[in-house]
Amino acid sequence: MSTVSRSRPLAVSGAGQDVLELLLIEDDPGDAFLVEEFLEESELDVRMTVAQSLADARRLLISEASGPQCVLADLSLPDGSGLDMLREVLTMAPRAAVLVLTGLNDAHVGVSAVAAGAQDYLVKQDVDAPLLARAIRYALERKRADESERQLVEARILSQENARLERGLLPVPLIEDENLRHHARYQPGRERALLGGDFYDTVQTEDGAIHVVIGDVSGHGADEASLGVRLRMAWRTLVLAGLTGEKLLDTLDTVLALERWSDEIFTTLCMVTIDPSRRTALMYRAGHPRPLLFTESGVDALPDDRCGPALGLIPGVGWPMTTIELGESWGLMLYTDGLIEGYAGEGSERLDTEGLVTLTRQILGRGMTGGEMIDTLVAEVEALNQGVLTDDLAILMLGRGSAT
After folding, report:
1. Residue 113: domain span
2. Claim to verify: residue 85 and residue 219 sit in the same structural domain
3. Which DSSP letter does residue 106 get?
4. What is the pTM (predicted TM-score) of this model?
5. What pLDDT sits at residue 191?
6. Helix and strand totals (H; E) in the chain
């Protein structure tokens, strides 16, 4: 194996790159010398390494962390040949542009090689310096285009799968009361993730009561997302079975203890039952942020004086109940702490509940309500945070009358 280093300006990969790393897999010293001479005559700034066998190439590609940007491969080697050899090269150098070298009688092999994944092929007897330089440029650009297309296809498939999973995992509210308005937003904090550990649900029972819940599993990741879905489904099942209040929370606490993988995992939760009259509600909070109450006179956070610990922390503990006077026209907005734990502008100050109330009042003052208000609220919270929120975020809003 030999290495050739040169220092002319690079004319193929654009500004910011210094040297093109090229691996030549060629067992004929004469052909390797010709390739070296052609590169010397070209405008390319190349550091070329020659592997005289497939085994040499394998050792090189395994030992180098970054690998070459381009591979020139003769498909007729003593220890490897044809498309089987090409497939191994493509596997060993997945980020490299691959050019195949063939003889006059093997041009059909070159065509098959391109169909199998190579960027181009060259007939040895026809190669000169300009053709080689042009072919390398073309191969690099085609590799970039192929990679971009692959990423687009992956993103499209991921988007389709996410939409399919979302339909199955995010809840459809069970509400028969046409006088109620329901809005929900969900935004996982992990990049390209579908679900986080936050969850919410809304169910109307046979007696006409409306039950809403929002929760947040501690931690971030697929396991937390899975646990959140299981807790939501357990909550819905228990509500439909007739459980309410502390009995329901006690059972959910037991479910969490059985389903979690560590004693350190806990879940904050806020649960509200709206009376069939729609004028009062009962609320239980387990370590969860205070909901916002919208009335004809404005918006404010509910009192912070009655809140129990998060689920999974203290076995057998009770959770106090709060009665909420709703009136004729009202709105309730439940949310997870991802909405209030971002920064409130420059510095280290967090938005917190008070900042959320102030921001919501400003948005309401512009005449926005419902889904438009929620979308604007999230956008402005992110603007204050100077970037997308890193924590999972869920918002559930239920309203009646003109207050929201």
Report:
1. 3-152
2. no
3. G
4. 0.63
5. 55
6. 9, 18
